[in-house]
Structure prediction request, 95 residues.
Amino acid sequence: MTRMPPATEWSPTSWSARPAEQQPTYRDPAQLARVVAELGRLPPVVVSWEVDALKRQIAEAQRGERFLLQGGDCAETFADCESGQIAASSRSCCR
Prediction:
């Protein structure tokens, strides 16, 4: 099993130092670098306060104070990964 680094060792590029067991081979390293740079400019998929809230809610479920039902379509495209679209999607699915 691969040891996970302490949170203090994380950085946006720390993933590249990790072993990749099933990594595709990219024919154009320059294009890969451009895509990674573009993805780095996009907003986060999940913001920190949502993570904190989820942790609290999961802890409540562990104590029997809340019921947890997990679901989702996982069908987002990179084109949909912009803050306005994410906010609209969150509002429509969580009413």
In short: The helical segments are 29-41, 48-62, 83-93. The chain has a mean pLDDT of 81. The chain is about 40% helix and 0% strand.
